[in-house]
Amino acid sequence: MMKKKQNIFYCFAAKKSFLEAELLLDFIDIHTHYLPGVDDGFQCQADTIAALEAMRAWGVKRIYFTPHVMADLPANRVPFLKEQFVGLALKIPEGMEVRLGAEYMLDASFYVREEEGLLFLGDRYVLIEMSYLYPSPELDQIVYNLQIRNYIPLLAHPERYLFLNEKKHEELRDRGCRYQLNLMSLSGQYGVRAQQVAWYLLQHGMYDFVGTDIHRLPVFRRSMERLKLTVPEEELLHRLIRQNELLW
Ligand SMILES: [Fe+2]
Predict the structure, then answer these.
(1) Domain 17-247 = CATH 3.90.950.20
(2) What is the whole-number distance in angstroms between the Cα of residue 13 and the centre of ligand 1?
(3) What is the whole-number distance in angstroms between the Cα of residue 68 and the centre of ligand 1?
(4) Are 17 and 52 in contact (CB under 8 A)?
């Protein structure tokens, strides 16, 4: 009996948390909400800088800021976001590189933003999102528009959409959408369903890139401490993390 208990203890001890596994070393974060006060992410510059310092201590050196761009946030147009970005970029921790991207909601405002000029990840990836509850009626048209311009739609957190099943994930990927995993989905931060779907998609090689989608540092830290990984899981994530280098 004692021996069995020791074995169980060993099994738990063998798993490292995401942070203990040092998976953020040289991580390029492609999905974040650090720009203060422009969306539901960080609300003051002091919190943003503190979070960037923590990220740098964990090994993150390159970050895209990707504020929400949507009909509900009409101020978030390129000139305004660039102005906010330049103001913050002067104050980021030494040794860190930052770029401005965006996370585009697939609503009717997208067409206007598209005409004004999009903010990309890499030279042609466009980070897009939808409501979690129902499919966007604009999805087909927007994916088509992007592809005829030789841009690549990158769907943020596909694991979180309640209306996407296994078949629909395959259809979307076949139509040229690339997939971005939210790290916090793996720990159950967005519920059991998103967690299960995230692990399924990860283990079936259906993710192309990975981001934190950080809105608050304490939430991210707790989530990453909770995320315990076996060695094969660590390796799987490490391989995905390295793919982000294609976007810098
Ligand atoms: Fe986001």
Answers:
(1) no
(2) 33
(3) 7
(4) no
CA of 60 from ligand 1 middle (Å) equals 18
Is residue 180 a contact partner of residue 31, using CB atoms and an 8 Å limit? yes
Q: What is the pLDDT of residue 38?
A: 97
- Residue 4 makes CB contacts below 8 A (sequence gap 6+) with none
Ligand 1 center–CA 194 separation, angstroms: 15
Q: Compute, in angstroms, the gap from residue 33 CA to the centroid of ligand 1.
A: 7
187, burial (CB in 10 Å: exposed 0-12, middle 13-18, buried 19+): buried
Ligand 1 geometric centre to CA of 103 (Å): 6
Low-confidence ranges of the chain (pLDDT < 50): 1-6, 10
The reported pLDDT for the residue numbered 15 is: 87
Instruction: Report CA(87)–ligand 1 centroid distance (Å).
Output: 21
The CB density around residue 25, as the number of other CB atoms within 10 Å, is 12
Give per-residue pLDDT as tens, 6-52.
455 545 557 899 999 999 999 999 999 999 999 999 999 999 999 99
CA distance 125 to 119: 9
Distance 106 CA to ligand 1 centre (A): 13
Distance 12 CA to ligand 1 centre (A): 32
Locate the domains of the chain by residue range.
Answer: 17-247
What kind and span of H or E run contains 69?
strand 68-69
